[in-house]
Amino acid sequence: MNNQIIPISDLQTTELQIKLRDVLVIGHATPEDNNFAIWLASRLQLLGYKVWIDKNHLIGGEKTWQEIDHVLRNDAIKYLLVYSKNICTPNNPGQLKDGIDKEFCLAESIAKSYDLKDHIILLNLDASVYDLFIGANRLNHIHFADSWPIGLRQLVRKLEKDGVEKMPEGQFDASFHDWYAKSYITESEITSKKELYYTNWWQIPNLPEKLHLYQFNTDSEAQELYYRENTFPVGKISNVLATFDSDFSLELEKDGVKFNVKPKAIFELKVSDILDGFESKDFPTSKDAANHLKRLLSSVFHKLMKYRGLFWDTLANKKLAYYYTPKTLPSSKVKFEYLYRKEGREKTKNLIGRYLNLGKWHFAVSNQTILYPKVCFSLKSHIVFTNDGFQLWNDKGKIHTHRRQKGKNIYNAAWRDLLIAYLHGLKSEDGKISIKLNQEFTLEFEPYTKTYWSDFGYMEPTNKLRQNILNVKSAEEMENLDQTNET
């Protein structure tokens, strides 16, 4: 048989070139969207995708157009454009910024040349309208404004649906990781030293001996008793109420007539048994009892915050983040001391402050009640914004942008101090943080979270220039922004 050269058709060549494409290119406007671009690149790389992002662009350097041109023409399977109001020129709505415009036009041209379906995907970061520029409304939008992790899950589903290949198992493209570590994680290190650490666990030191469960025939019966004015905290799950009050009233009043609601069943459980676990196949099982105890303790937390007069923001996960207002904290500041500090010197921390010319920022706290390994409130810190110290902003995109802008200038020690100050602010005039759980039992809290001593410590960098890859503002501008935020 004679050796023959088999010609490859143009179609086969095109299909081969498409198969060789395996890189996700992230396009974004700098510096406003750097945080998100870095976060997204790192997550996609951890998931096994090859990712390209203009690293020079992130640190304020010149764009290397030859490299961008090469990767878009030869390697890119998807062009992921971070879609926000920052991609357009400020004085000419509808006109993309020069760098983004060049990238977008080239990506669009490549998609047409190789018939790449859904080659361009818009990652809507701030809930911008669908037509920031001509043609944007005809492209796929994946929303990240409400939640970056949720947006990422939707993006990954789209990539999987379109057959975007990951690197073979066991392989990892470390280029972005190595650059990030070298450029950003430079001064941080773990060192041997005796150091006190504050957790986010606000311990519940003790509880009444017994928990009482009232099971009603219907949810509506339980609900009426739950929403009336109860003297002590009450928890509710479905048609069951939980309380530490052994004299819990079953009385309701309608149209001036008082009557009692008869429970289907009443259970009295030892709190110690609930924490240790017990065997029961019937209601309440050990899991039922634990859930009712946690729900009741969550009610204790909410009542404590509301008794103190705090306002709240409802988060995306339906939890409430409580914040002080100028009425509940007139000076905006709280004094506190560190534990085990010999000199006993007081420190002052602002929990409310003026934010640029947009209103006020507030330090806020939400809670998840846990029973193990300690019975405590697991506190989570937040930053919320108001127009006047009371009324929350309602623009999700605006909130998202400024929360990250404000939060990235707060380091570990500052978050710790804010939380300690927040707890000290809960003290009443007698200097105590307390709430009655029943007629005989008053629960008192320490104004500190649980602490532990470690033989290792973290050397936290103090140089703000380490943020340069996230923000190309000068150090002087960053300092000015900090002073504005803390006034």
* CATH class label of the largest domain: Alpha Beta
SS class: alpha+beta
Q: How much strand?
A: 25-35%
- Tally of individual domains: 3
Q: Roughly how many Å apart are the termini?
A: 88 Å
Helix content: 25-40%
Brief description of this entry?
The chain is 31% helix and 26% strand. It is α+β, with helices and mostly antiparallel strands.
Structure characterization notes:
The protein has 487 residues and is of the alpha+beta class. The chain has three domains: 10-183, Toll/interleukin-1 receptor homology (TIR) domain (Rossmann fold), CATH 3.40.50.10140; 191-199 and 309-425 and 450-487, no CATH class; 208-306, no CATH class. Helices cover 31% and strands 26% of the residues. A hairpin with a 5-residue loop joins strand 21 and strand 22. Helix 4 (65-74) packs parallel to helix 5 (98-114). The N and C termini lie far apart (88 Å). Mean pLDDT is 86; it is low at 8-14 and 468-487.
Keywords:
Rossmann fold, globular, 487 residues, five-stranded parallel sheet, 13 helices, alpha+beta, 23 strands, 3 domains
Please describe the topology of this protein:
Layout: H1 10-19, E1 23-27, H2 34-46, E2 50-53, H3 55-58, H4 65-74, E3 76-83, H5 98-114, E4 120-124, E5 140-143, H6 148-161, H7 175-183, E6 189-198, E7 201-203, E8 210-215, H8 219-227, E9 234-237, E10 240-243, E11 251-254, E12 257-260, E13 265-270, H9 271-276, H10 286-307, E14 311-314, E15 320-323, E16 333-336, E17 347-350, E18 352-355, E19 359-370, E20 376-386, H11 396-407, H12 412-424, E21 433-436, E22 442-445, E23 451-459, H13 475-486
Parallel strand pairs: 1-2, 1-3, 3-4, 4-5
Antiparallel strand pairs: 6-23, 7-20, 8-10, 8-13, 9-10, 11-12, 14-15, 15-19, 16-17, 18-19, 19-20, 21-22
